[in-house]
Design brief:
It is a single chain. Helices cover 44% and strands 10% of the residues. It is an alpha/beta fold. It has one domain (4-319): 3-Layer(aba) Sandwich (Rossmann fold). The strands form 2 sheets. The chain has a 5-stranded parallel beta sheet with strand order 1-2-3-7-6, with helices on both faces. β6 (212-217), α8 (221-238) and β7 form a beta-alpha-beta unit. α5 runs parallel beside α6 (158-172). It binds thiamine diphosphate and magnesium ion (MG). Magnesium ion (MG) is lined by residues 151-153, 185, 187-188.
Length: 332
Amino acid sequence: MQRTEDLTREELTAALEWYAKMVLSRRFEDAAERAFRHGKIGGYLHVYSGQEAVAAGLLSAIRKDDIFFTAYRDHAHALYSGSPPGAVMAELYGKATGLAKGKGGSMHLFDASRGFYGGYGIVGGHIPLATGAAYTLRYLDTDRLCLCFLGDGAMNSGSFHEPANMAGLWGRDGLCPIVYIVENNQYAMGTSVSRSSAVANLASRFLAYEIENERADGMDYFTVRRVASRVINQVRETGRPYAVEMLTYRFAGHGAADLFQPYRNRGEVTDARTRDPITLLEDRLRAAELLTDADVERIRREAEHAVEQAVKFADESPEPAADELFKDVYGS
Ligand SMILES: Cc1ncc(C[n+]2csc(CCOP(=O)(O)OP(=O)(O)O)c2C)c(N)n1
Ligand SMILES: [Mg+2]
């Protein structure tokens, strides 16, 4: 864990905004789960609670013109990059005002205007897309880069290995500015990493493709942020891929339908919650005297208000019109 005394005042102060964003996304996830139980949200719903420091640390370190891809646990990624909470919630509700016009739902958020290229429900399906996008950024002679968040489970799919090999090859010529971020939350649905990966150290699997890699504590915002800044600078400079395995934990079930979680015991979740990324960050900001009880209270109230407004907006928004059905489905 990054030592508080080694952090600069600037890093600590900049983290305040990200603390507020993490509080917002946690409240947003709680509200989304409630809405799912009330039948307001159809299809799938996978929440990000417990993993906030990973996306926050990485997305706080990129430039506005950089791009990123992730899988279906994507609400926080959208909120952190600035998509309006109302439009994100409306997408979960399948409403016309949603981020993807109500046609994608929870797993397919998309906001290219903020560099967010989705939100994908097919496990591993976005890794080839992100890798090709990174190549394109260099091919077009820019110094922009691409982040590709993926799950521990996604690493066991063929669609991980093929682009990883190409990234290794393209990287030799400085043509693949991508950071792969493995969000190792210990499980792929009900299957633990130890039951699905031949090696425990997932970062080391990138060595097969000559991709530099490391693992880090994904519960500590400052650790993630420090690693992210260093790695992002390097990738931008060299055009070579890099992989980071972030050790994290999902507090909720895999999806809203995973009620009983027979694959893990309650004690394991309770233990993980003692390192809640939001509490860890809050404690450090309090220790640095940047956050008081009153600030914490205000930030919580503001988050609650923003989420209430988002739910109201989603509730009151119209369903997509019938003549929208075939629009934006295929390019022409
Ligand atoms: C190609 C494909 N196979 C299977 C599934 C079913 N499925 C949905 S999520 C999931 C587990 C993925 O786990 P991981 O990559 O670790 O992501 P996490 O849910 O932990 O964020 C599986 C197998 C799917 N969506 N796509
Ligand atoms: Mg996982």
